[in-house]
Design a protein that fits this description.
The complex is a heterodimer of chains A (about 250) and B (about 160).
Chain A lengths: L1 H19 L6 H19 L3 H4 L1 H21 L2 H8 L2 H12 L1 H6 L2 H17 L10 H23 L10 H24 L8 H42 L12
Helix pairs in contact in A: 1-2, 1-5, 2-4, 4-9, 4-11, 5-6, 8-9, 8-10, 10-11
Chain B lengths: L14 H27 L12 H30 L5 H26 L12 H36 L1
Helix pairs in contact in B: 1-2, 1-3, 3-4
Classes of the chains: A mainly alpha (about 250), B mainly alpha (about 160).
Amino acid sequence: MTASALILLAAAAYLLAASRDRRGWSPLRTGMWLAGCAAAALAAALPLAVETGPILHMAQHLLLGMAAPIGLVLGAPVTLLLRTGAPAVRRGAVRLLRSRPLRVLSHPFTAMVLSVGGLYAIMLTPAHTAAAHGPLPHGLLLAHYLAAGYLFTWSIIGPDPAPHRPGTATRAAALAAAIAAHAFLAKYLYAHALPHGHDPETARAAARLMYYGGDAAELVLACILFGTWYRRRARAAGRRAAPPRPAVGRAAP
Amino acid sequence: MGGESGRRDEAVPDPRRSSLAAGVIGVGTMAAVDEVVFHQILAWHHFYDRSTADAALLSDGILHAGELLALAAGFFWYADLRRRGVLDRRAAWGGFALGAGIFQLFDGLVNHKALRLHQVRYGVDTWPYDLVWNLAGAALALAGALLIWRARASRGRLREARR
């Protein structure tokens, strides 16, 4: 209930800000944000994992940790905030983007450890049963999936300005590490029919869902990462090929 | 990736980069074919087989990450070479076949035999399958290497003639 209200609020705030952008905000970005909100809402609407076992828990992880962040990151909410926020808000956002803690936290490898490492901690320890202890632990678990997934996705394909974002090679390496760690965990859970306490066949079905669902999301991330490289190279080549602009009304250097 | 980028007016086909970019696509494509045809459609291979050690699962995961990234990176690298007009088609086809063949051989020798991740097919004598699998991989790799060699040789002759 609370989750749906929060998601609805996020969608409404974004739409309000987009409508206030005088330069005209991209409808594609708005669509991405709304799609991300829809994926998050779908995950929040699934019943508590305690009643449904590992398959729905895995579906929630995939939707919140991998699918929803792609839409929410491509919606470029930070850019929207920088364009439409009040001056004080904008200054605060720029300071935050430049700050050292954010720089460390949003490094692709830090984000990868928080996101995939968190998943190891949840799936291989009793933490995954936390969801059984009521709505608050369950909500915290889901919030962790979304926050860590968003941070990692942003560090790999974030379109928002980030003064210290590492280059394509570093980001590709972090993505490779994340894919390998995710695939290994999925097959490990499959091999040992983990987590315990469920019917082994159900646990294996959940692990298979994790493996193939993860693949789909990671392929999308890889295509966006290298697609951005491809477009940036075109722009760089265009700048080199274009003749120097005539210096109208300016003294020659 | 990439390196120096020539301007379009002086673009010269680049057989080395063309075969590398397409080779990366070849590796990724063969891995995808393996996954889709043998795992999903024929269900000859297993997702995991009971005798697999955890260390082999880790190598499988790392390989899987490489394949997935190779497919995406290769396509955009290839597109970039095409856009800059430096793509050498013959070298690219050669690279594709070489990459696909090398993956097939690697899968057949290391994954199936050394790591015993899974076998080509279950419930049958595996050696004819292994033989066909690895011979096909070797033939692909050889054909690819030949194409690259010929593409590089003819580029070399062209450069000689221009001098």
